Description:
Blueprint: H1 3-18, H2 30-46, H3 51-69, H4 75-91
Helix pairs in contact: 2-3, 2-4
Amino acid sequence: MNQFFEELGRRWVAAAHRRKASIEAPSLDPRVALELLELARVAAHTRERRFAPLSCFMAGVAAERMRIAKPGLDQGAVAAYIQEVRQELEAETPAAPNER
């Protein structure tokens, strides 16, 4: 996606290696990244701002479990999966006074 995330992926591989595990470098599809950013935005306005990163972590765990349950799932489908939950959460969130 960009240099920062490519380097971060290499860091995850190296950290796993130090723990005697071999993993493929995680990557971030731009469509999935956009949905994660939107999820973080909605989560930050729904409850507490600090929940935004944890919401994205949970989305990643859920996405990986979906990939295991449905082998061959493409990144567009993963983005749509995250989008669906984000839209449900967003629909339950009252608009801020300046967003009306």
